[in-house]
Write a sequence for this structure.
């Protein structure tokens, strides 16, 4: 997983290496920060699901996952 992420990250930098417009650079930095926050949120969700699976019944966890998936679909 990590090598794939690093490869994609490097590819994104290489794709935009010729950008010189300061406004466009700011936009790209903002997009990168957004992606970073999304990755952190997914990681926290993964940790939360693992903790919940350890301490709660599997039926409760399954119901929670179904509700969460429905919420994500509705976004």
């Amino acid at each position: 997983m990590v090598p794939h992420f690093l490869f994609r990250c490097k590819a994104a930098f290489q794709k935009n290496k010729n950008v010189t417009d300061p406004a466009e650079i700011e936009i790209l930095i903002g997009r990168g920060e957004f992606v970073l926050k999304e990755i952190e949120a997914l990681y926290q969700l993964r940790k939360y699901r693992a903790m919940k699976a350890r301490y709660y019944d599997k039926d409760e966890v399954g119901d929670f996952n179904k509700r969460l998936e429905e919420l994500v679909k509705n976004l």
User: Anything to note?
Assistant: Residues 17 and 23 are 15 Å apart (CA to CA). The chain has one domain: 20-74. The radius of gyration is 18 Å.
